[in-house]
Amino acid sequence: MGLIYARAFLKYNIVTKENLLLVEKSEARKQELLKLNVGEVTVPNDTKIAESDIIFIAVKPQDFDVLAVELKPILQSAKCIISIMAGMKISRIAAALNNSNIIRAMPNSPAELGMGMTAFATNGIMAYEQLRKAEHVLGTTGRSLYLENEEELDAVTALSGSGPAYFFYIVKHMIEAGKRMGFDEATSSLFVKQTMLGAFHLINNGNKPLDELIKAVASKGGTTEAALSVFNEAQVGENIQKGILKARDRSEELSK
Ligand SMILES: NC(=O)c1ccc[n+]([C@@H]2O[C@H](COP(=O)([O-])OP(=O)(O)OC[C@H]3O[C@@H](n4cnc5c(N)ncnc54)[C@H](OP(=O)(O)O)[C@@H]3O)[C@@H](O)[C@H]2O)c1
After folding, report:
1. β-pairing, 116-122 with 142-146?
2. Binding site membership of 86 for ligand 1 (Cβ less than 6 Å)
3. pLDDT of residue 206
4. What average pLDDT does the chain have?
5. Ligand 1 centre distance from Cα of residue 59 (Å)
6. Does ligand 1 come within 6 angstroms of the Cβ of 44?
7. 156 in a domain, yes or no?
């Protein structure tokens, strides 16, 4: 994710290569990053990190404590620290770094293509100017939305953070159904992917509500209705909702 953001910052001219500092602990990975020629590469205890306008933290949550020990002495006066670590509360990051200028963001994997959805929150004391800058930076990977309440990030994690996996799951089972009806993988994939793409654009660009879009395809006694009656009998819709609420609960648990 760190590299995805670094590339997005360059693409949208948020920063030049010369002013982008990538921080990496492993020597082997540092060499790989240098070859990619995305920016300067340094180690976590380099005091130069403190000179940055925005510091972006993209390590796994379980690696943060180790990183925080190295960053704490150099980040005391940093004006804007953005964390994308899932489930890591602003108060915990602020305490570990002894700095309260923290923005917590939750992106999702389509960020890689500039089609991500990111929500972000602060502890309410971040200066407006820093917040505006952060929104600009996060927007390089897609859409971004400021949340007044940090706790809503658990629901965001369940909805848009994990959301791509739910979509892949549905697509996967549709492709499998195509294979059971005799199509090879590539043909079934083509039917399903193009269908999902077209259907998404009907939702996004049309003006009909979802129920009406469903009704337009599902005529009485027809094929779509036959499929939907099996889904309804198995309470697929209700179970999708339950699954997402469970993901929200898990996010709450993990951030404790
Ligand atoms: N992937 C997603 O879709 C997604 C969505 C939302 C949020 N997030 C969040 O984004 C963060 C990054 O996820 P990811 O999938 O990009 O993880 P990742 O591929 O494991 O990347 C984390 C990077 O941090 C480096 N690192 C670990 N400890 C470090 C330290 N002390 N100093 C410097 N670098 C260190 C790792 O280096 P080594 O490999 O050498 O250990 C690795 O390159 C996570 O907190 C995750 O919760 C991810």
Report:
1. parallel
2. yes
3. 86
4. 94
5. 3
6. yes
7. no
- Count CA atoms closer than 13 A to 109's CA, side-chain side: 7
| Atom 42 of ligand 1, nearest CA residue | 59
61 in a structural domain: yes
* Domain of 22, in residue numbers: 2-149
Structure tokens of 19?
């002013």
pLDDT in tens, 164-193: 999 999 999 999 999 999 999 999 999 999
This prediction's pTM:
0.91
Nearest partner of 131 among 143, 144, 141, 116, judged by Cα: 144
Q: Residue 128 pLDDT > 90, yes or no?
A: no
210 and 141 share one domain: no
**Ligand 1 atom with the shortest distance to the CA of 1:** 16
How many other C-beta atoms are found inside a 10 Å radius of the C-beta of residue 45? 14
| DSSP 8-state secondary structure symbol assigned to residue 56 | E
- Can you spell out the DSSP letters for 89-147? -HHHHHHHHT---EEEEE--GGGGGT-EEEEEEE-S-S-HHHHHHHHHHHGGGEEEEE-
- The residue to mutate among 42, 46, 59, 63, having the most atoms of ligand 1 within 8 angstroms of its beta carbon, is 59
